[in-house]
Amino acid sequence: MHRRGFLAGVLSCPLCAQAVRAAEADWNYETPNKWGELDPAFKLCSIGREQSPIDLENAVPANIDRLVIEWEPQAFAIVNNGHTIQANAEPGGFLRIGEEKYELKQFHFHAPAEHALNGERAAMEVHFVHAQPGGKLAVVAAFLTAGGKNTAFSRIMKVAPAAEGEARLERPLNPRALAQKQGPLYRYEGSLTTPPCAEVVDWNIFAAPVRVARADIDAFRRIFPNNARPLQPINRRFLLRGK
Ligand SMILES: [Zn+2]
Predict the structure, then answer these.
(1) What DSSP character marks residue 170?
(2) Whole domain around residue 55: which residue ranges?
C-alpha cells in the first residue's frame, strides 16, 4: 500500500474524498481488469456502464458548448503519487462549459494516451481535472506527441520526482501550453480512469496533439512505462464532436 500516494490522492482531489475515502486497496497498472475486485469501493471499475477511456470513433457531429478556460500561471507542486506525475493547483483556475463552472484541482499525465483516436493511441495524454462543490468533475484532455519543444512539459519533467514525493516549480508555469484549442473537440460522459472509477466525469478531449520533446516523453516513461487504463466499451452513450 502506497500510503503516501493514497493520501496525496485524497489531498489533491478533496472533492473526490468521499469516493476515495473507502479506497483502502492498493492498485496498479499490471492488472487493470481486476481493479473492481480489489475493494468494494472499486466495483464500478468492473460493472460500470459509463467507463473511461474509450476509443474516439463514430462521433456524432454536434454544436457543443465551447470550453472557456480560465487557468492562471502557478508555481505548481509536482507530485509523484505512485500512479502518475501530477501538478496540484492552488485555487483560482476555472473552466466554464455553458452554464456550468468548475475549478481546476490538478493535472497529470498518462503514457501511452488513454483515449484512442480511431484506434490509435498517442504517446501521452494530459488530464486537467476540474470539480464542482457537488463532486461533479470535468476533465479537459489533450494528446501529447513527440516532435517539438514544449517548455511547460520540459519544466515539469525536469523536477518530476522519480520515486513517490513532491517537488515545486521555482517560477509560475502557464498550463495553457499543454492544452491548445485547435482541431475538433470530443465530448462524452464517462468515469475516472483510475479506481474508484466513479462515473462523474464530463470528458472534453482536444483531438489535435500538442507537440513535446521526445526526451521529455522518454523521461516520463522511465518513471511510468505504462499508466494507461485499457479501452472501455462505449455502451449506450453518445460521443459528440464539435468544432
Ligand atoms: Zn488521468
Answers:
(1) S
(2) 3-242
Q: How far is the CA of 83 from the centre of ligand 1 (A)?
A: 10
Angle at 173 between CA 171 and CA 175, to 5 degrees: 170
C-alpha to C-alpha distance for 73 and 93, rounded to whole angstroms = 9
Tell me what pLDDT residue 3 has: 42
Q: How far is the CA of 8 from the centre of ligand 1 (A)?
A: 15
Q: Among residues of the chain, what percentage have pLDDT more than 70? A: 90
Residue 8 DSSP symbol: H
Q: How many domains in the chain?
A: 1
Q: What is the distance in A from the centroid of ligand 1 to the CA of 193?
A: 6
Distance between Cα 114 and ligand 1 center (Å): 8
Q: What is the whole-number distance in angstroms between the Cα of residue 231 and the centre of ligand 1?
A: 13
Q: Mean pLDDT, consecutive 10-residue segments, the chain of 243 residues? A: 44 52 76 96 97 97 94 97 97 96 98 97 98 96 96 98 96 94 92 97 96 98 98 97 90
Cα–ligand 1 centroid distance for 90 (angstroms): 19
State in Å: Cα 2 to ligand 1 middle: 18
Q: b/e per residue, 137-161, with b = 16+ CB within 10 A?
A: bbbbbbbbbbeeebebbebbbeebe
Packing angle between helix 214-223 and helix 151-159, nearest 10 degrees?
Answer: 30
Q: How far is the CA of 238 from the centre of ligand 1 (A)?
A: 21
CA of 99 from ligand 1 middle (Å) equals 24
Residue 196 per-residue DSSP state: T
Tell me, what CATH number does 106's domain have? 3.10.200.10
Query: pLDDT of 196-212, one tens digit each?
Result: 999 999 999 999 999 99
